[in-house]
Design a protein that fits this description.
- This protein is an all-alpha fold.
- It has 4 helices and no strands.
- The radius of gyration is 21 Å and the shape is elongated.
Length: 121
């Protein structure tokens, strides 16, 4: 089971990094979302899941589940949702201001021309 969880976290992280390095804003937003999912899964797994145990100390129970990772993941979900909403609004504003959805704000032809001019100057 540990191998499956580690593989899932690795795939989410790799996909998030790959999409975050793209040139358009929508894949970057998806990449940041995948990275936040990977972090949430990592935090949740670090709490060592225990099935059928109460999250609160009970003298009748043989053990308990640590509630701290669950609280951390819940907080991280709320923060990731707010961050995603902010980045989407920021991307929409940049598209309306600049007229394109490139991360650097330039069309690919204009960016290439600008780089060539900087190299010759």
């Amino acid at each position: 089971m540990e191998l499956v969880i580690a593989l899932a976290i690795g795939v989410l992280t790799a996909g998030g990094v790959f999409l975050s390095l793209r040139g358009h804003t929508f894949p970057v937003v998806l990449g940041l979302t995948l990275l936040s999912y990977a972090v949430n899964l990592f935090l949740f797994v670090m709490g060592r899941l225990a099935i059928g145990l109460p999250p609160i100390l009970d003298p009748a129970a043989s053990g308990y589940t640590d509630p701290l990772p669950q609280a951390l993941v819940l907080t991280a979900i709320v923060i990731a949702f707010g961050m995603t909403a902010f980045v989407i609004v920021l991307a929409l504003r940049a598209k309306s201001e600049l007229g394109n959805d490139h991360v650097d704000g330039l069309h690919s032809e204009a960016a290439g021309q600008e780089r060539r001019e900087e190299g010759h100057a």
